[in-house]
Design goal:
This protein is an alpha/beta fold. It has helices at residues 11-22, 34-42, 64-76, 91-99, 144-156, 166-189, 196-199, 204-210, 217-225, 228-252, 257-278, 305-315, 342-354, and strands spanning 3-7, 26-30, 55-60, 80-85, 107-112, 133-137, 160-163, 293-300, 322-327, 333-340, 358-360. Among the domains are: 3-164, Rossmann fold (3-Layer(aba) Sandwich); 293-360, 2-Layer Sandwich (VC0802-like), CATH 3.30.2130.10.
Length: 361
């Protein structure tokens, strides 16, 4: 791949353009908003000048509702040898293209499983996709050259290619992305009119659950409008679990001891099902999840503190597998939770104490 055309210079399009440009590909940028394309060009993602002729690969980075229209226009104009989109829904756009009677041998649907709460070219980074799954949905009619161009794009972005059927992909992202986003938003909505005293008690748990609720609603309306059926099916199942849990909690309020036992059993059942599902979430490097020991360290909110603690862990010969930070309310301090192999926890605790760190249980 020597040349590429990115149609749509938001977060995903600009990030892909940056990755390609950094690897020597000549990237042309276009957007319905010319100012956005100029911004992406100024960031080093390519040039906002039109290509002289067909490029090797056209990347359509438009919302799902507009993907088919943008792809059809690009294909009819002969802008590239190969075409792909990066929308988060795959089945619908392909069916729209088929209905238009286009030759789809030069097209492949793709979806990089990466993103941020922020949008637009200024939020883009060339390493956004690094280590992330990038779904490819080829069909029997997909030209081998086009598949190879898509794989080359994934390689340039240092992502991990995953081949799936388009409709299976849409059901999968409904489960792992679209439905969780709505549930996160529903939980966050409970905070909108909550008393300030309650909000001040927010800790790591509520932050984890509501983090993705900060995304742009307009973008998510586009996404959910393109995949409503699978998401609605999953929310129906969640609603049934919620109703059962509500009944179990009401039973816990009963004066009848048998009903209280039934209520406790109902709550325990949903919690244990949650345990069983949570352990299936892939762990580090996509491997099966592992159980780590937590070494909690109190640190001041000062420059260099994290660098020091990681350096001290390294001197102790301990690899930090993961890290979490919980900020102390009303204090310029935080609790850093270092996740390490169980056999390394005592070694790290002793080494950090020796170097003056305040360890918390």
């Amino acid at each position: 791949m020597r040349t590429a055309l990115v149609l749509g210079t938001g977060l995903i399009g600009t990030s892909a353009a940056l990755a390609l440009a950094q690897r020597g590909v000549t990237v042309h940028l276009a957007d319905r908003d010319p100012e956005q394309a100029r911004t992406a060009a100024a960031l080093g993602a390519g040039t906002d000048e039109a290509p002289d002729g067909p490029v090797d690969l056209a990347i359509v980075a438009a919302p799902p509702a507009h993907v088919a229209t943008a792809l059809a226009d690009a294909m009819r104009r002969g802008l590239a040898r190969g075409y792909l989109d990066v929308a988060s829904v795959k089945g619908g756009p392909r069916r729209e293209l088929e209905a238009l009677g286009l030759d789809l041998s030069a097209y492949i649907g793709t979806h990089p499983m990466a993103g941020r709460e922020k949008s637009g070219p200024l939020a883009a980074t060339g390493d956004l996709f690094e280590g992330r799954p990038w779904v490819l949905t080829p069909t029997a009619e997909t030209d081998t050259e086009v598949l190879n161009l898509a794989l080359e794009l994934v390689s340039h972005c240092h992502a991990v290619p995953v081949v799936m059927d388009a409709d299976a992909h849409d059901r999968a992202v409904a489960l792992v992305s679209h439905m969780p986003h709505l549930v996160s938003s529903m939980v966050a909505a409970r905070l909108e009119h909550a008393e300030e005293a309650a909000v001040r008690l927010c800790g790591g748990g509520i932050r984890d659950v509501t983090r993705i609720a900060g995304s742009d609603p307009r973008m998510w309306i586009d996404i959910l409008s393109a995949n409503p059926g699978p998401v609605a099916d999953l929310l129906t199942e969640v609603a049934a679990d919620l109703e059962g849990t509500v009944q179990a909690l009401r039973a816990l309020q009963s004066a009848d001891e048998d009903k209280r036992r039934e209520g406790a059993a109902g709550v325990e059942k949903v919690l244990r099902r949650g345990n069983a599902g949570q352990v299936r979430v892939p762990g580090k490097h996509g491997s099966a999840p592992r159980v780590y020991e937590v070494v909690a360290v109190l640190i001041d909110d000062q420059p260099g503190q994290l660098a020091r603690i990681f350096a001290d862990a390294g001197r102790a010969g301990v690899n930090v597998e993961d890290v979490r930070i919980e900020h102390a309310t009303g204090r310029q301090a935080g609790l850093v939770q270092l996740l390490v192999e169980p056999k390394a926890a005592a070694v790290l605790t002793a080494a950090l104490r020796e170097r003056g760190w305040a360890i918390r249980q």
